[in-house]
From TrEMBL:
It comes from Alicyclobacillus tolerans. InterPro entries: Cyclic-di-GMP_PDE-like, EAL_dom, EAL_sf. PANTHER family: CYCLIC DI-GMP PHOSPHODIESTERASE PDEF, SIGNALING PROTEIN. Residues 30-280 form the EAL domain. This is EAL domain, c-di-GMP-specific phosphodiesterase class I (Or its enzymatically inactive variant). Gene3D superfamilies: EAL domain. One of its GO terms (molecular function) is cyclic-guanylate-specific phosphodiesterase activity. Transmembrane segments: none annotated.
Amino acid sequence: MVQDSHIKNGKISLGGGGGGYKLSNRPNIPTSVLQSILSSIQRGQLDVVFQPIVHHRKEHFFAYESLSRPQCEGKGIPPDVWFQAAYEYQLSTEIDRLALSMSLKKRLELPAKWQSKPIFVNVSPHSLTERAYLEELEHLLQESHCPPSQLIFEMIEYIAYDPKTLFEMLRPLRSLGVRIALDDMGVGHANLSTLVILEPDFIKIDRSLIQNIHLSDRKQRLLSHLLCYMDSGEQVIAEGVEKIEEVQITQQLGIDLSQGYYWARPMAVEDWAMMTPSTFLNTSYSIGGQVN
Ligand SMILES: [Ca+2]
């Protein structure tokens, strides 16, 4: 927990912590960020939005990712900054529990057509090694009528972790049917050895490798090799697609899934209620299939 001695001149000095995991080099965090984290935990409130993941080959809505939208002093704050600050103050398990709980709760407000699709939720690998988190997970799934097979945890990349330990800790979770995705593949800690050890059900290719992929033979070669490793194009998600050329090239390579502004921005649940499948899919991409 944070002590007063950690706070000097409106900044928080980082000490150790993190449950034996490596910490990133963040010398100071504004006290307002910590206050925002503590306030969210105390109120049990965190805004979440959903962004669709599209099966572009079959032209249908495949799943959606739940994205937290924390606020600090009345303004949005980058989620990675906020979550990493929580981790560094050993509050990430509480925050991850809150994010999961809010995601599953908001999912219930989606129209049935959307609600029946799988939900991707970001989580710190550290939380998944906490027994308390795993024990509560089953309860949360039951309470929100979410079948375990509909939940996919995305391992965030900005915190280093031991994939062997995590793989063992995940066994009971996976035996329930919960699936695992490796987020931000290609950057940070989502490296190749993690891919080999963790055996994820999905990999999400970082946007930096997708941006302008139609202009880069090297990016295309790399994606081909990753796809070859994963066996199926339905296990690979191209993140951050913004142009039709990026979607077309990933499809030509054999990757079936994509997510990004090309299809839709993350939307509050109220906005989803007004959407039909055909209104969110970018009509310029249509290759004749039926959106469903
Ligand atoms: Ca993610």
